[in-house]
């Protein structure tokens, strides 16, 4: 979905997707059900391994024989607060965005594991800035304008724009557009000329998607909240406010270089709808249809990751989600995947699938 990088930054190097696991603590429902903890992670951070006990055998021998180990780049446990997540995960990528690289952060996992909390968190302002429980997006907004306004070399010669796209039942909507003017958006592709000796690439765009100029972080946060208030959500047995759609919040940065040229970079912040077991969630009729659409698009995402790992042609066109994330998976974008998981036994199957997904994604090269 990102714009092609400028020639000054283009090269022939490759870089693996950075994969992070965030495990929340047990919620009230899991505690009330006396669902035991089956995930072994540090309280905060400090390891690259996640151990998952897949059986009810709590003996030493039983745990050893039934424990699966998954390797990723970083693991954050229940004690990791929003500040630690931002500094350890998003901040390094944010620095690359400021340098002119296209970047993507996306949160993946079962419904109810904390993806929206990780990406958005608390949207309230505290003393004119973000709250301690604010997620990655508010922190990116405030850090972006702080860095730009304090950069004396720029002399305020910069432009920041944002957009917010919702993918619901394979339909694209501009959430920042007024409701009475909101229509289904179409994806189109365009051939982009690249460096001499390097093959031309196809860039994916959304036709008629509006980008809004943002003057400061508070303006950006207000736009984000306005859009998210219209996001499709509903209550299921697995999550009281389950997101029924994927959202992509994009920031475009134009920094003046020289007399007439601007360097353009884009940061995509993606909150994926949660995968879910339809029978467990109690979804019926419309909810079941939504869950089916979500699971199909996430399955398509999994197929793309598998194809990239196996050096096969990825089926990007299988879903709107994979088409829009094409450049973030195997393309020219620096990418971080945050896999959110539950620690409880009752979610063991879903947790195992998320960790398998995450550990495989670690082998994707951009």
From TrEMBL:
<keyword id="KW-0067">ATP-binding</keyword>
<comment type="similarity">
    <text>Belongs to the TRAFAC class myosin-kinesin ATPase superfamily. Kinesin family. KIN-5/BimC subfamily.</text>
</comment>
<keyword id="KW-0547">Nucleotide-binding</keyword>
<dbReference type="InterPro" id="IPR019821">
    <property type="entry name" value="Kinesin_motor_CS"/>
</dbReference>
<dbReference type="GO" id="GO:0008569">
    <property type="term" value="F:minus-end-directed microtubule motor activity"/>
</dbReference>
<dbReference type="GO" id="GO:0005524">
    <property type="term" value="F:ATP binding"/>
</dbReference>
<dbReference type="GO" id="GO:0008017">
    <property type="term" value="F:microtubule binding"/>
</dbReference>
<keyword id="KW-0493">Microtubule</keyword>
<dbReference type="GO" id="GO:0000073">
    <property type="term" value="P:initial mitotic spindle pole body separation"/>
</dbReference>
<dbReference type="GO" id="GO:0008574">
    <property type="term" value="F:plus-end-directed microtubule motor activity"/>
</dbReference>
<dbReference type="GO" id="GO:0005634">
    <property type="term" value="C:nucleus"/>
</dbReference>
<dbReference type="GO" id="GO:0072686">
    <property type="term" value="C:mitotic spindle"/>
</dbReference>
<feature type="binding site">
    <location>
        <begin position="109"/>
        <end position="116"/>
    </location>
    <ligand>
        <name>ATP</name>
    </ligand>
</feature>
<dbReference type="Pfam" id="PF00225">
    <property type="entry name" value="Kinesin"/>
</dbReference>
<dbReference type="InterPro" id="IPR047149">
    <property type="entry name" value="KIF11-like"/>
</dbReference>
<dbReference type="GO" id="GO:0007018">
    <property type="term" value="P:microtubule-based movement"/>
</dbReference>
<keyword id="KW-0505">Motor protein</keyword>
<dbReference type="InterPro" id="IPR027417">
    <property type="entry name" value="P-loop_NTPase"/>
</dbReference>
<dbReference type="InterPro" id="IPR036961">
    <property type="entry name" value="Kinesin_motor_dom_sf"/>
</dbReference>
<keyword id="KW-0963">Cytoplasm</keyword>
<protein>
    <recommendedName>
        <fullName>Kinesin-like protein</fullName>
    </recommendedName>
</protein>
<feature type="domain" description="Kinesin motor">
    <location>
        <begin position="16"/>
        <end position="364"/>
    </location>
</feature>
<keyword id="KW-0206">Cytoskeleton</keyword>
<dbReference type="InterPro" id="IPR001752">
    <property type="entry name" value="Kinesin_motor_dom"/>
</dbReference>
<dbReference type="GO" id="GO:0005876">
    <property type="term" value="C:spindle microtubule"/>
</dbReference>
């Amino acid at each position: 979905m990102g714009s092609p990088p400028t020639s000054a930054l283009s090269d022939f190097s490759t870089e693996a997707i950075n994969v992070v696991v965030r495990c929340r603590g047990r919620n009230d429902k899991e505690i009330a059900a006396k669902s035991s903890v089956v995930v072994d992670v540090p309280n905060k951070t400090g390891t690259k391994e996640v151990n998952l006990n897949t059986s009810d055998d709590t003996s030493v021998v039983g745990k050893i024989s039934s424990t699966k180990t998954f390797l990723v780049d970083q693991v954050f446990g229940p004690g990791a607060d929003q500040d630690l997540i931002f500094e350890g995960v998003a901040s390094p990528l944010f620095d690359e965005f400021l340098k002119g690289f296209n970047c993507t952060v996306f949160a993946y996992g079962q419904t109810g594991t904390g993806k929206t909390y990780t990406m958005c968190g608390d949207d309230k302002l505290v003393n004119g800035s973000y709250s301690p429980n604010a997620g990655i997006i508010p922190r990116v907004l405030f850090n972006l304008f702080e860095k730009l306004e304090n950069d004396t070399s720029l002399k305020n010669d910069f432009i920041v724009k944002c957009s917010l796209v919702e993918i619901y039942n394979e339909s694209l909507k501009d959430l920042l557009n007024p409701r009475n003017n909101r229509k289904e958006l179409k994806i189109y592709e365009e051939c982009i000329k690249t460096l001499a000796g390097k093959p031309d690439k196809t860039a994916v765009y959304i036709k008629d998607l509006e980008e809004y100029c943002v003057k400061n972080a508070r303006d950006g946060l207000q736009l984000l909240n306005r859009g998210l208030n219209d996001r499709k959500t509903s209550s299921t047995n697995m999550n009281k406010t389950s997101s029924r759609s994927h959202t992509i919040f994009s920031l475009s940065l134009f920094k003046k270089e020289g007399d007439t040229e601007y360097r353009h970079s884009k940061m995509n912040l993606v909150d994926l709808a949660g995968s879910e077991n339809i029978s467990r969630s109690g979804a019926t009729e419309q909810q079941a249809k939504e869950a089916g659409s979500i699971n199909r698009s996430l399955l398509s995402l999994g197929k793309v990751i598998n194809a990239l790992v196996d050096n096969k042609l990825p089926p990007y066109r299988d879903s709107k989600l994979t088409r829009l994330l094409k450049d973030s998976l195997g393309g020219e974008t620096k990418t971080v995947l945050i896999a959110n998981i539950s620690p409880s036994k009752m979610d063991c199957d879903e947790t195992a699938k998320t960790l398998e997904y995450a550990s495989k994604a670690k082998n994707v090269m951009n």
